[in-house]
Amino acid sequence: MRGANGSGKTSLLRMLAGLLRPLAGGVQWRGRDIRRDPASYHAHMAFLSHGNGLCGELSAADNLRYALAIAGAPAVDTGPALRAWRLEACADQPAARLSQGQGRRLALAATVLAGKPLWLLDEPDAGLDAASLDLLDQALAAHLAGGGLAVVASHRPPGLAFADMQTLDMDDYADAGNAVAVGAP
């Protein structure tokens, strides 16, 4: 999903996450309205907002453990995830001391570790350097190859070609800078 700032990308992701109620229509997951059984829906979904959702006092490793616990995912060794996202040297540092890019990579590592089939990612590339963008693209490719689904709001095209990728340009639905309804109610 792409579009200018203020075009409604984040609002649409928040609707898909069940955090914002649509004015008309609804959101369905596997044929069911997500409002009817939100706990079941949230058990299948990971939402990474434009904020990283990290606890500044906790170490990078503890943030991953905490994210797994609140996602209802089983506890795992966080070492491989920290290595994969180039965060091993930061494992014991409080998240508040991490750079913007390190914090974003940590939040992405938590998303991947949670093992949810649906990822809702709001500008996941924000603050990432070129090597980290490659890691993000690889994580998306692996998730999709494993049968996962990702809805991504971004200002950049993905670094890899995805066969089933569809692009929603929010600017196509804007009227004087305000997003309007997409699809039938």
Automatic annotation (TrEMBL):
Gene Ontology MF terms: ATP binding; ATP hydrolysis activity; transmembrane transporter activity
Keyword Translocase: yes
InterPro entries: ABC_transporter-like_ATP-bd, ABC_transptr_haem_export_CcmA, P-loop_NTPase
Any one of the GO BP annotations: cytochrome complex assembly
Keyword Membrane: yes
Domain ABC transporter: start-end pairs: 2-125
Domain of life, per lineage: Bacteria
One Pfam family, short name: ABC_tran
Name used for this protein in its record: Cytochrome c biogenesis ATP-binding export protein CcmA
Organism: Achromobacter insuavis
High-level lineage: Bacteria, Pseudomonadati, Pseudomonadota, Betaproteobacteria, Burkholderiales
Gene: ccmA_2
